[in-house]
Amino acid sequence: MITNALSVDVEDWFQVGAFETVIDRADWEGLDRRVEANTDRVLDLFAVGGVTATFFTLGWVAHRHPALIRRIADAGHEVASHGWDHARVFTMDADAFRADLARAKKALEDASGTAVTGYRAPSFSIDGRTPWAHAVLAEQGYRYSSSIAPLRHDHYGVPDAPRGTYRPMPDADLIEMPITIATVLGREVTAGGGFFRLLPSAVTERAIRAANAGSAPAIFYFHPWEVDPGQPRVRNAPLKSKLRHYARLGAMAGKLEKLIARHRWGRMDAIAAREAARLA
Q1: Sign of CA dihedral 96, 7, 181, 142
Q2: Which of 91, 75, 35 is nearest to 58 (CA)?
Q3: Pairing of strands 181-184, 187-190
Q4: Alpha-carbon span 15 to 115, nearest angstrom
Q5: CB neighbours of 43 closer than 8 A, spacing ≥ 6?
Q6: Could you give phi then psi for residue 145, rounded to 5 degrees?
Q7: CA–CA separation, 17 vs 122, rounded Å?
Q8: What is the DSSP letter of 7?
Q9: Which residue of 12, 19, 64, 75 could cross-link 35, Cys pair, CB 3.0 to 4.6 Å?
């Protein structure tokens, strides 16, 4: 049985891309922080399921909740980087990206006591506008990235990217592990996050089985705020953003429990090591 990658993008409800135009970063400190309680719930869910995972975590969160990051590492999970404060990579130049990576990595390593070797761009924001991004990641010592969504979406996507693990640069060891893609009614979507919440579980199941049928691991992701139906509502957010963010939050934990039970799961770094050896 193939081991699939279970990953969590650790950010709070007010840091998501859907609300970036209506919640100012300057206001974050005054908002109700729920990321610690929500991530602890995820840790409990994984403990019951007997699985380990990778937690792609914002440096902003690690700086303010170092005990949480230590609990993640002590439970046997991988702590990886999601950047500092969820700024999309295509909003930066190479120097700003380099600084963002360094700041986040220091906070994560100080809090976890472990080396950070994996990265996921906020909102899968490495794309055609960031041709320098993988080179910077390799330069900074990252072993893998899981930052590409190989589809067309209104906020992200590289439609012509490979669907499986690949080396984005022939002269570097860094590998890219794109998020797994599912198909529903002829439309391609990411296998995880909001689409996992909103769509029947069979959609994700088909995507996982298809990846495994090709001897490849599926890459699945979600966020801690997705198991929190009681989170504050952003009344002035666009309707489409509210639908994406709040729909079926109450169903998420149960769906995750069933998904975890049906497949073998593991940390991204362990799967990345096997994929790198396969590509060598």
Answers
A1: positive
A2: 35
A3: antiparallel
A4: 25
A5: 71, 72, 75, 77
A6: -130, 145
A7: 8
A8: E
A9: 12
Q: What is the pLDDT of residues 154-210, one digit of tens each?
A: 778 899 999 999 999 999 999 999 999 999 999 999 999 999 999 999 999 999 999
Provide the pLDDT confidence category of residue 92 given band limits of 50, 70 and 90.
Answer: very high
> What count of other Cβ atoms lies within 10 Å of the Cβ of residue 183?
14
Taking every pair of C-alpha atoms in the chain, what is the biggest distance, in angstroms? 51
Give the C-alpha separation, 265 to 70, whole Å.
21
For the CA atoms of 53, 112, 106, 19, what is the dihedral angle to 10 degrees? 50
**R_g of the chain, CA atoms, integer Å:** 17
Three-class secondary structure of residue 194 per DSSP: helix
Residues 176, 9, 212, 160: what is their CA dihedral angle, to the nearest 10 degrees?
-40
> How many residues are there in the chain?
280
Reading phi first (left if > 0) and then psi (alpha if -120 to 50, else beta), residue 248 is in left
| b/e 128-162 (16+ beta carbons within 10 angstroms → b) | eebebbbbbbbebebbbbbbbbbbeeeebbbeebe
What's the CA gap between 198 and 226, in Å, rounded?
Answer: 11
CA distance readout (Å), 189 to 57, 179, 219, 223, 265: 23, 10, 13, 16, 21
Taking alpha carbons only, the member of 278, 244, 256 closest to residue 53 is 256
Residue type, 159: P
In eight-state DSSP terms, residue 163 is S
The DSSP secondary-structure symbol of 231 reads S
Give the tens place of pLDDT for each residue, 253-274.
999 999 999 999 999 999 999 9
- Six-digit token pair at 112? 């976890």
